[in-house]
């Protein structure tokens, strides 16, 4: 059995990027009394690790690469260099890091460097596909967010467990600027898409076509975008779109509460890559109806959303929902969605993870 007190989370996304699973696990763990260090992607301008306190028990770490071209080094040398890097970090923070929680497999993928520490590999994205075999076989236990990812990882080990994306706690002390919500015109149906609007997998043609076709519906595109991006170019002349840009994650739940319907629109040939998007839990928590392109993780939960198997049927699904919003957003249906989301808060996901760690006598 191993201790779990001081945790190093290794993330492919920086702390300052959009808040997703890695960030929320870090926040929730720190709120439960664990000391968490969140390692940002490497920054070669930092000759010494830079430690920044985010909140009580939670710090970010920014560091230069362990060594250039490290993945090509012999295993024994790579282990030694990464172990030396870890020991230098421990010396700087004056603490022993007893747990490595790896959310990627492009660096530190060979967890042998962590020796007898608790080693967790947690894959939340299918496209994290650099060195999954080594990450799985050198970890103590593995978690993932979808059946598709789990089936891929089962080729390397049977010690793989699916834990859905979680729902982040809403900070009740957040001050909301009410004027920013005046863009919601109560005379029109409010339709929201939330996410990176320049994302490779987004079906921008479909999204632009929907906004063009339903000219009497008010669309809200919430997320970062480039004015030279394809979606903006396709739909910049449409007057029924409000472009929010990137927003602070703390106000997302307040935005979604204004929706009548929520959109998920990924390209058909990328459906497997987007088998369990993070946004679903936030969508479900709003209670509002979701119209989604095919999403494998919810194929057996169609009572919670309206999902089409093929993108060509998406427009008709929108028409069907808009024509009967009272039914799709009935009290009972909204409560079902909210209840599902509340069963998957990050606190409850961590309870499930700790139960599995104890079952395997890892803590």
Automatic annotation (TrEMBL):
Please name the top-level EC class of this enzyme: transferase
Enzyme Commission number(s) of this protein: 2.4.-.-
**Which Gene Ontology MF annotations are present?**
glycosyltransferase activity
What UniProt keywords apply to this chain's record, in alphabetical order?
Answer: Glycosyltransferase, Transferase
Protein's recorded name: Glycosyltransferase
């Amino acid at each position: 059995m191993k201790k779990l007190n001081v945790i190093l989370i290794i993330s492919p996304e920086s702390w300052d990027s959009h808040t997703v699973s890695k960030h929320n696990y870090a926040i929730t763990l720190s709120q439960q009394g664990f000391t968490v260090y969140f390692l940002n992607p490497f920054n070669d301008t930092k000759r010494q690790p830079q430690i920044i306190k985010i909140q009580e028990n939670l710090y970010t770490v920014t560091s230069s690469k362990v060594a250039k071209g490290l993945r090509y080094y012999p295993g024994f040398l790579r282990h030694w260099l990464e172990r030396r890097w870890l020991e230098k970090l421990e010396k700087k923070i004056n603490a022993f890091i007893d747990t490595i929680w790896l959310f990627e497999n492009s660096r530190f993928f060979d967890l042998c460097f962590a020796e007898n520490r608790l080693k967790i590999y947690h894959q939340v994205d299918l496209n994290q596909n650099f060195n999954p075999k080594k990450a799985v076989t050198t970890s103590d236990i593995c978690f993932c967010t979808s059946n598709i990812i789990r089936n891929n990882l089962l080729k390397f080990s049977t010690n793989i467990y699916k834990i859905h994306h979680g729902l982040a706690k809403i900070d009740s002390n957040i001050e909301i600027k009410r004027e920013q919500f005046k863009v919601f015109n109560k005379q029109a149906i409010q339709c929201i898409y939330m996410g990176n609007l320049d994302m490779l997998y987004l079906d921008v043609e479909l999204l632009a076509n929907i906004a063009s076709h339903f000219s009497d519906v008010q669309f809200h595109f919430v997320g970062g975008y480039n004015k030279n991006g394809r979606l903006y170019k396709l739909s910049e002349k449409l007057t029924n779109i409000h472009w929010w840009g990137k927003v602070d994650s703390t106000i997302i739940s307040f935005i979604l509460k204004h929706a009548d319907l929520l959109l998920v629109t990924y390209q058909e040939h990328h459906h497997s890559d987007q088998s369990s998007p993070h946004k679903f839990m936030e969508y479900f928590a709003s209670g509002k109806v979701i119209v989604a392109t095919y999403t494998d993780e919810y194929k057996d939960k169609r009572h919670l959303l309206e999902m089409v198997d093929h993108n060509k049927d998406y427009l008709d699904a929108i028409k069907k929902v808009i024509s009967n919003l009272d039914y799709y957003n009935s009290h009972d249906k909204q409560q079902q969605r909210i209840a599902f989301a509340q069963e998957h808060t990050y606190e409850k996901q961590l309870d499930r993870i700790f139960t599995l760690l104890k079952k395997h006598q890892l803590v």
